[in-house]
Design a protein that fits this description.
Length: 73
């Protein structure tokens, strides 16, 4: 897999044991929204990925969002 060269997105691979669909529902209830990585593959994703947008949030919002995601996982 190629490494991203930069940008405003954080591409993350999670352990297969993480139920990303469940995390997405729980995260949305707290105001944290992310995109499951499977939509970025033309076929079945080769792992459990998520994409986080870092373009508009403040540093404090990013840290809080990551803390929330970490606690949900």
């Amino acid at each position: 897999m190629a490494e991203p060269l930069g940008g405003y997105m954080l591409w993350t691979q999670l352990p297969d044991s993480v139920d990303l669909a469940e995390v997405k529902v729980l995260a949305r209830a707290t105001g944290v929204v992310f995109c499951a990585g499977d939509v970025f593959f033309p076929a079945k994703a080769p792992g459990n990925f998520m994409r986080l947008n870092c373009a508009k949030a403040s540093e404090e919002e990013l840290v809080r969002g990551l803390e929330i995601l970490g606690s949900l996982m």
